[in-house]
Specification:
40% of the residues lie in helices and 11% in strands. It is of the alpha+beta class.
């Protein structure tokens, strides 16, 4: 089914349901779920020649009563088994459990749904290779996570399957769930109706439901950039607020302390906040993303902008001056190596989680060591213009493979995580075990989360005692209260929405469908392969970045199809605008 046609039909169906609900005289039942995001109310038709009405205030959108109901449990808990392919990170969780199958959450979900979910796992270090081998063999688990359904920057879709869910469907690896959703996932369906046409677009791929998306109610940024607070204080320096100020401070750190890893940069050759400074998306070397961004309603690839050339000239200077580690492009540092570099005073700026602050000091050789969070770096207007918003609808859980013998049962299993019981468990774990509800109605965590007896930090405890293997209704700031005031302050610094602008972001719903993705995949591979080789030579200085060299690079990128790729993205975006207006 064509994306445009189905998006329009879905929008009309939703509008009809809303109007029918408005016309009903029957009182609605109270809904006990947490408040959802606001959406514009449906306006009643005005009588002819009626005077202009005052604007109607927005009302909170709540899920309608579902037409269908799934009663749980849906299986007998022993013979009803569904399988899921998964990558297991031994480094992160190996000290606490050896398999997802060992987690108590699996037994809890089995008890509530009547379905036993069995994980077929591989090490996260070889996940991509093993996933591709499984696909090549044609022997799939019931559930597969194939990545997002749309491509806004290149093939791959952010997941393990090249081309994401759209391509996995075309290749007959996963199935279309559209005919099952309303009946077999009624709680998901009811929640989806509160998000309007953009929500439906975010939950579908080429007009199809290829998985059950996650609804994000709140989010936070708990990872960001750090620098040395003790060095700032000793030298009377201020925290930088712009990219240029950070670069200046990096040179001072290099000269004063002899840092070997002054600014964090990996094989992708990108530095955080550079986009805002150079007014362009930054191409990730060796990646499969052509750095698309938006200026108004015009889409542009950052690979050939004047701003990107200026950025590359900076990178060449940083490399020549030793601000970048001489072997930055060889491989990413592992966690232990990073901690060692930080602890020995060789890092001036580095990436890290908010709750690692105390660990940085523990690893440090200098007794005066202190880490301070770098704020969001902004431009002359005081905003970070290339921020990426959190889509309220999208991403989410696994797809159902063509090998699943009971697809309706699989969809009903996934639906449980959108019930109140299911999404509370997904976010917070089990009431009375991991949390209680205080007199003020707020979540109060127990020591299983706050002071875990097995030594897990709060994030690891949530991964163990709550659920993260399917889509759900997500409260991204659920663990904010588990942090100290100091760490909460760091998270608030990185989450400061007043400093973020999304003017250059391309909506997920405006990405490429499977046919469009197929049309650009080969060209993108050729362009990015060529560009990666040339750009790295410019940065490390083995070839000079002259006007002639740059012009030849731009011409070759377009010869390999970059302009054609941009045209495909532009058409997809124009179609998105047309569909949105028609809805």
């Amino acid at each position: 089914m064509k994306r445009k046609l189905l998006a329009m039909l879905l929008a009309l169906v939703m509008l009809f349901c809303l109007m029918a609900g408005c016309a009903s005289d029957e009182p609605k039942e109270d809904v006990s779920e947490p408040a959802v995001e606001e959406s514009a109310p449906v306006e009643e038709a005005a009588p002819e020649e009626a005077p202009e009405e005052e604007a109607v205030p927005e009302e909170e959108a709540v899920p309608e009563e579902p037409k269908y109901v799934v009663e749980y449990p849906i299986g007998n808990g022993e013979d009803d088994v569904l399988t899921m392919w998964a990558a297991f990170d031994v480094n992160a969780f190996g000290n606490y459990y050896s398999s997802f199958n060992d987690k108590p959450t699996v037994k809890y979900v089995q008890e509530k749904t009547g379905i036993l979910l069995e994980f077929q796992e591989v090490s996260s270090t070889i996940a991509t290779e093993q996933f591709n081998l499984m696909i090549a063999a044609g022997d799939y688990t019931d559930f597969l996570s194939c990545g997002t359904g749309r491509t806004t920057g290149g093939p791959g879709g952010g997941g393990s399957y090249t081309g994401g869910m759209a391509q996995a469907f075309v290749d007959e690896v996963i199935i279309d769930l559209s005919d099952m959703i309303e009946e077999h996932a009624p709680d998901f369906w009811a929640e989806l109706q509160t998000y309007g046409p953009d929500g439906i677009a975010g939950a579908t791929t080429d007009g199809r439901f290829l998985n059950l998306a996650t609804f994000t109610k709140s989010s936070m940024s708990d990872s960001g950039m750090w620098t040395r607070g003790d060095w700032l204080e000793k030298n009377g320096k201020e925290l930088p607020t712009t990219f240029e100020e950070m670069i200046d401070l990096a040179y001072f750190y290099k000269e004063t302390y002899g840092c070997t890893h002054t600014i964090p940069v990996g094989p992708g050759c990108s530095i955080d906040f550079a986009s805002t400074a150079y007014d362009t998306a930054i191409f990730g070397v060796s990646g499969t993303d052509i750095a698309m961004f938006r200026e108004g309603d015009t889409l542009i690839s950052g690979m050939t902008t004047d701003g990107y050339r200026e950025y590359l000239e900076l990178m060449n200077q940083l490399y020549a001056d030793g601000i970048l580690n001489k072997e930055f492009y060889v491989s990413e540092m592992g966690r232990n190596q990073s901690m060692s570099v930080i602890g020995k005073g060789n890092a001036a700026f580095w990436q890290g989680m908010a709750d690692h602050k105390a660990e940085f000091s523990t690893m440090a050789d200098d007794p005066d060591f202190s880490a301070v969070a770098l704020p969001i770096l902004v431009d002359e207007n005081g905003v970070n213009a290339y921020a990426t918003p959190t889509d309220p609808v999208g991403g989410g859980g696994p797809s159902v493979s063509v090998d699943c013998e009971t697809p309706e049962l699989a969809v009903e299993f996934l639906n449980w995580f959108y019930t109140e019981e299911g999404y509370m468990f997904s976010n917070y774990g089990t009431e009375g075990e991991t949390y209680n509800i205080g007199e003020d109605g707020k979540i109060v965590y127990t020591d299983l989360i706050l002071n875990n007896p097995n030594g897990m930090n709060s994030q690891q405890a949530f991964m163990y005692y709550a659920w993260s293997h399917t889509g759900s209704i997500s409260y991204g700031d659920k663990n904010l209260d588990t942090y100290s005031d100091d760490i909460r302050s760091v998270i608030e610094t990185w989450s400061d929405e007043s400093k973020k602008s999304y003017d250059h972001h391309i909506p997920t719903a405006a990405g490429l469908d499977a046919e469009e993705t197929n049309s650009v995949t080969g060209m993108i591979a050729d362009v990015t392969s060529y560009a990666s080789e040339v750009i790295l030579k410019w940065i490390i200085g083995t070839e000079p970045l002259t006007d002639e060299a740059w012009d030849a690079y731009v011409a070759q990128c377009n010869e390999l199809g970059l302009d054609d790729c941009v045209a495909v993205y532009q058409k997809a975006y124009d179609d998105y605008l047309a569909e949105k207006e028609a809805a």
